[in-house]
Every structure is written in structure tokens, then in C-alpha cells.
Amino acid sequence: MPSLTMPQHKQLTFYTSPYSPYCHRVHIALEEAKVEPSLVEIDLRPGCKPAWFTNKVNPMGTVPAFTYGGAPAPPDQPSPAALKLAESIVLIEFIADLHPEAALHPKDPELLARARLFITLSHDTLHDAFRGFFFRGERIESILPSLEAFQALLAPSGYAVGPWSMADVVVAPMIVRFMRLAGYEIGKYPMGEGKRLLKALGEPKFARFMQYYQSLWDRPSVKATWDEVPVSCDSPEGRLI
Amino acid sequence: MVQPGQITFYTHVYSPYCHRVHIALEEAKAEYTSCSINLMDRPPWYNTKVNPAGKIPAITYGGPKHAPEEPSPEAAKINESTVILEFLADIFPEAKLLPADPVQRAQARLMITAWEGKGFEGFKDFFFMYAQATSPEKTLLEGLDAFQARLLATGFAVGEWSNADSAVAPFLLRAELLLKNDLGTYPVGEGKKVYEALQGPRFARLRQYLKDVKEHPSIKATWDEALQFGIWSQNPMFKRT
Q1: Which among A23, A164, B28, B239 is least surrounded, fewest beta carbons within 10 Å?
Q2: More confident residue, A226 or A19
């Protein structure tokens, strides 16, 4: 592994939204690294996102986003010298590089490659099922095959690739939302599908998935960054992001 | 530089994804055996022995040297081009496929992720899905402009050559080749029109970047324009009635 120059303490500002599973990924990684950045909440509702965010922090206009380094500055006027960074997985890799002690990167390159491959393969399986269920309003028949395919990617025991890694950070927010929001019937899926999903996941063929969910739910960084009350509250905007 | 283990590389010259890995192997001065895989006529052993997803690129790493069709059970099998690029950066640290500095590493990774979004979308829409796309020319030019906007004033994506260049250059080289020769699913002349647009002042920085790319040793070693023209001009998808 390359030896990385140890950074001096530099400012870290994290632009986030409490409902976003992508931001949740980064919150988990920061929790694992025991890093506490300045937090700036960005309102993602249509018409509410401030122009300075797209102009000065992230031209793609998305959260999560970081500024890192540069002179301390107000969140809406970041220093030109500060690094501007976005994309949840890029941010997790960055935290892992800054904090090798956080064990987000397995030390063995082959295991780390397996973690990164798991992340890539989770997009068309778990992530697609997540968007299908919560955002496209699909029924469980449409998403269960993807969840089964995702389950097949898991190591036989332990976390995604065995020991804890960034792979778990990436998928935990979606799995937690499946398991914790379906019971409240929150999402675009037809009413009643939430209960049907939990029943289907209780079947023996999803035993490994449920075991994995339990190990994620038991991980302190996952519990500490999941605030169920605001997410489960009904809101006109259907705040799931 | 002592290579830690054997590498067998499953590839095909047409593929920009395979090209990414080929460049990185050359950058690392790795010892490797190449095996050409034609996905239109996939050998029956490929899915079971190398990559269950059936795609290229893939590598085996470690274990004893083996015939391509008989990977050793001890060898790691790694697929997905960006996963392989990261793995090669990890096992060839002196090659600096990614910079040592976490900030620059993050910038390189963001360039790759940003390209995978708008950049690739434009490439795919314009050359391969012209009729179904909404505004393929606009998407292609915006994707190229967005990549250009992230470049430093001179040099490669983050200064020295990195995985960011290995990841994006294969697409830029093919885009230029196809546009210059008016090859694609678009109507006759549309390619040449976009090629002309790329000669204007808006794209001066991108043209310089491409010029620098073509002079770079690992590109010279892996890009044969005449060969590529021969392959792409025969592509049945581009046949015009």
C-alpha cells in the first residue's frame, strides 16, 4: 500500500441532507473514522436549493459534498484554495485515505478489490431494488429477484466481504431503509407492499440477507447516524431522497 | 520493481474499458499475459473460470502462471475496469497510478466518476443511440466540456498521468476517431459537424489534452489508430442504409 503523507489538521465542511441515503453513507464513514466535520444542511426540495451551493461548492448541485482545507470561511463562501469534492463513494475513499486507522480499506489489496467489486455490483442489484421500490413504486415481485442477486454477492458470513469495510458503508443506508421504513409503509410503492416485503424477507431463502441486516444494525456507526423519527414522519414532500 | 504475482489479462482491442486496464498495466511496467476474448464468440470456459458476468476486462492475479483457459484456483479473479485500476494502483505503489496525496487521489477519482455520468452518457447517446436520445449532440459536447473544465491549466487530469487519464482517454481517442470519420448511428455528416465544433476556441484545452495524451508512452504502446479505424468502420451497428 502506498505511504500517504499524514495531513495536518485541516477544515472539513460536509454539505448534507438528513434524508439522503447517499449522505448517510458519508456520515457512517465519518463516524467510523471518528471525524467531526462542520455540518451544513442543504434543503433539496424543488426551488429551495441555494444558488451558492451549485456555484461555489459542487457544480453538479448534489449532496453529499465536502470542502477540505483552505482558510476557514463561511459555508456559502468557501475558500478558493479549498478542495471541493462530491460523490459519496469518492468521499468515502477520501476519508479512508486520510484515516487509514478507520479500517474502511482492508489492508489486503485482493480483499479491498473484492470490496470495491461488491460496491460496483450492488448498483444493479440492491440499489436498483431500492430505487424501484421507494421511488418507482414497484411491487415486491419486481424487486425480490434483485435482492436475491444482491444476497448472492455477500461473503458466506460476517460483513459484505467478511471483515467490515467500505462496502458495508455503501450499502447499509439502503438496507436500513428497506427494513426500517417498510413497516411504516413509507415510499412510492402501493400501500401494503411494505408489510409484504418484510414478510418475504422473513422467509428462509433470505436468511443471509437478514443476518447481514442484523450485523449492520448492530454496528454502532450505523445506529448512531440513523435518526428514525424525522425520516418516518409523514411529510407532503415524501421526504425519502 | 518486483512484481508481486502473475497477471493474466482478458481483453479485446476494440473495448475502451479494456483499454483502461491495458494503459495502467503499461504504466505500471507490469509483466502480464494477454488473452483476446471476442464477446460475440465467447469461449465456453470464460464465464465459469474467469468472470461469471461474462464481461471484459478481467484479470487473474497471483498463483502459478497458467494457460489463459485454466486459471489456477489460487488466483484472484478481478473484473470491472475501475476496480482493476484501483487494484493495480494498490499492488504497484511505485508506479503512482494514483497520486500519493489524498487530495489529488480524490480529485482523480472524482474525474472518473464525473466522466462515468455525463461524459459516458454523451458518448453512448451520440455514437450508439442517436435515434433514441433526446439531444445527443448537446449531451456529448457538454460531457466533453465538463471533463475539460476539471482539467488543470496544463498536463494531465491531476498533473502527472493517473488512473483518471487511463479511464477517460480511451473514450476521447475513440470519440475523435469516430467523429473524424463520421462513424456512428447518427445521420451522415453529423459526426463531421461535431468534429468541426471541437476545433473551435471553446475546446482548446481539450485539444491540447488529447495531443498530450497521444504523445504519452503508455498510449503509444496501446493505441493503434489504423487498427482501430479498421475495427470501428466495420461495426455493424454503424451501417447506414
Answers
A1: B239
A2: A226
